[in-house]
Amino acid sequence: MGKIVFKNLEFYAYHGVLEEEQTIGSKYLLDLEIDLDFSIASATDEIQGTIDYSRLYSLVAEEMAKSSKLIEHVAGRIVSMLFVSFKKIDSVKLKLTKVKPPIKGNVNQVSVEIEKSRIEL
User: Which domain holds residue 27?
Assistant: First the structure.
């Protein structure tokens, strides 16, 4: 078993309950921890034994581009898509952060986290 970690994937997207959030947009950060067996890749140096990082990023970017009211919904969609797209993935931990959310007060970031294993599907 191994773990692949993506830190601070940066996106500009249009998620939010407020109309201006869907119009103006905001910065988002996404962290992923993916558990999978990449022992074949570590032994053979072949991408077939792991997941393609570029493809993963592109698929996540496609989901981030779909406007939603709730970041909880966006996070759930991304996790579901990862399991469908990459059969090698055993579990995913995702953290999605909205930078400078429109909340009265001094709030730098709001994050949601999801952890799910293939067994739970």
Answer: 2-120
